[in-house]
Amino acid sequence: MNKEISQTVLYSRHKDLKAKMAPFGSWVMPIFYQSVIFEHNYVRSQVGIFDVSHMGEIFVQGKDASSFLQGLTINNIDKLKVGSSQYTALCNEKGGIIDDLIIYRIFDQTYLLCVNAANIAKDFSWLQSHQQGFLDLSLTNRSSDFGQIAIQGPLSLKLLNTVFSAEKIDFSQLSYGQIIEVELFGLKVFFARTGYTGEMGFEAYLPLSLVGSLWDLLLACPHPKALPIGLGARDTLRLEAGFILYGNDANDQTTPMEVGIGWACRLLEKDFIGKDAILEAKKRGLERKIEGFIMDEQAIPRANMTLWQDDKEIGLVTSGSYLPSLQKAGGLALVSCKANIEKPIFVDVRGQLKKACIVKKPLYVSKSKTS
Amino acid sequence: MEKLKFPDNYFYSKEHEWLSDKKGIVTVGVSAFAIDQLGDIVHIDLPENNGQSYGAGDSFGTIESTKTVSDLYMPASGKIVAINKAVLESPESLQEDPYDKGWLVKISIDQSPDNLMSAKEYQDYLNQEG
Q1: Three-class secondary structure of residue A109 per DSSP
Q2: Using CB atoms within 10 A of its CB, is residue B115 exposed (0-12), middle (13-18) or buried (19+)?
Q3: Which of A181, A255, A324, B11 has the fewest CB atoms within 10 Å of its CB?
């Protein structure tokens, strides 16, 4: 592993804003500026902006781009229209998840892959190792010259339309999952209506030289007033929304079915690496599955705590936290399919069994999100 | 951010606990610096009953923020004589007032501690640590 710690282009701004910084993989990132709970609630009720420049951007281009991606991803790329996006995953031959990602089809033969920060090098070399036989194909890892800002919350649309009113860009034309290219300070920027909070929101993909300018522009708007949000709140927001986090809730030992993204896995429509193993596992029957849970007793569940029912170990917490919108603790857990999900479960919190119950995902349903 | 406060009459440990005095029955809590570092306090675990004895440096509970769990360490050896049950119900009171409403336990000291810092020494220590 690369032990070097990287800073995003906004590092000095985070320091000026007195953010609590902490290592996040190989990056030092803002965890919170004021308070995780305050920032979480602000995104649920107003609008927040997140520096997510650590995320990776890989471009796949050429006549063969779609057939190349079709064979490597679980979702059906043929269904992806220009200007739209698709949630998908790369799997190994055993059906284990290499990474989960969003693919944007930004032009007819150009796909932008937004991948997890910790997996950039792994994903890129996986793609490269499978490009043989695709003659009209180019793969470019642009992670180090692209930044990313997420704009999330019920007032995100109003914020963008206000900030860009002079440019006459109407962000309301973007429906959920869509992406457009706009010109900002003479350079091309992509805005997508996607996010990781469960709220209405947007994500901007832009050259590093523009990240600071966009950040300042968004924070300068007096109404609606956006606040910077740290990765602490990003995690509690995604957890309430029931979104998995690679490295916690999914890894190369878990299949798409197990982590609850089977809906994106198009087994009947296409062939892809990992499909045979996934079909095989499906035939045997699902053994464990990611479930949402909420604590009934006062205790905070944390990753890797064990779950119990009737004196049997039934699973493992994969993500746990205090959940501000629910005002309760909870999270996601990998639970044996033999467990009775109607009955109480118990989390081993440092030697004490604390009562919890399994609930349907998402743990919290946003009041603002519209499609 | 407003300046963090450290009452002059208290004593502080390197683990960021405070002690109201060095002898007799004293109150134990965590410093404003620790609270500031942790962020939102969402859960606190303390001993359930009075009467348990701890040595200096022993863990007597945990304090959890949204992101992390930290141990609470006894700044002096002694026996627990009171537990702040109110703080278990509303851990946020620790953030609002770590020195009064946010006290954690009271102990009867059985050996006067010699490695605690004054408020001034503690602030110098924090500045050194950066």
Answers
A1: coil
A2: exposed
A3: A181
The answer, for B37 touching chain A at a CB cutoff of 8 Å, is: yes
Residue A368's φ and ψ, nearest 5 degrees, are: -100, -20
Q: Would the pLDDT of A229 be above 60?
A: yes
| Gap between the Cα atoms of B99 and B7, Å rounded | 8
Residues 6+ apart with CB under 8 A from A207: A145, A146, A147, A187, A188, A189
**Which residues from B are below 8 Å from A18, CB to CB?**
1
Please, what's the b/e burial string for A178-205 (b: 16 or more CB within 10 A of its CB; e: otherwise)? Answer: bbbeeebeeeebbbbbbbbbbbbbbbbb
Measured CA to CA, the distance from residue B61 to residue B89 in angstroms comes to 15
Residues 68-127 on B with a CB inside 8 Å of A are 69, 88
pLDDT of residue A286: 95
Under an 8 A CB cutoff, do A300 and B39 touch?
no
d(CA B53, CA B109): 10
Please report how many Cα atoms fall inside a 13 Å half-sphere around the Cα of residue B61, on the Cβ side. 25
Q: What whole-number distance in Å separates Cα of residue B107 and Cα of residue B110?
A: 9
For residue A73, the 8-state DSSP code is B
pLDDT digits (tens, 9 = 90+) for B45-75: 999 999 999 999 999 999 999 988 999 999 9
CA distance A243 to A150: 16
B1 contacts A31? CB cut-off 8 A: no
Distance CA A331, CA A316 (A): 11
The residue in chain A having the minimum alpha-carbon distance to the alpha carbon of residue B92 is: A37
The yes-or-no verdict on residue A333 having pLDDT over 50 is yes
- How large a percentage of chain A has pLDDT more than 70? 98
What's the rounded mean pLDDT across residues A290-298? 97
Q: Do B67 and A329 touch (CB under 8 A)?
A: no
pLDDT in tens, B3-49: 899 999 999 999 999 999 999 999 999 999 999 989 999 999 999 99
Q: Judge: A232–B39 Cβ closer than 8 Å, yes or no.
A: yes
Dihedral-angle region of residue B121 (phi above 0 means left; psi in -120 to 50 means alpha; beta otherwise):
alpha
Nearest CA to CA, how far is B22 from chain A (Å)?
31
Using the beta-carbon criterion (under 8 Å), do B69 and A232 form an inter-chain contact?
no
Give the mean pLDDT of chain A.
96
